[in-house]
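Have a close read of this protein, sequence plus structure tokens, and explain what the tokens say about the fold. Thanks in advance:
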Amino acid sequence: MHVFTVEGMTCGHCVKAVTQAVQALDGAAKVDVDLAKKQVRVDSSADPAQIRAAIQEEGYQAEIA
């Protein structure tokens, strides 16, 4: 399980964009987004740096928590 702090997420569209970005990298990834805490939890075998890059490519500031 990888946890990321993601700035800039405000709505359901943001959740969908982040989820799809991660799942494009790993189709089996489980993604849980908490808008209030600005956290994204990802259960994936993908490299955390790759996941972070995929989130950032969507336009969000992401840091490994």
About this structure: The first helix runs from residue 12 to 25.
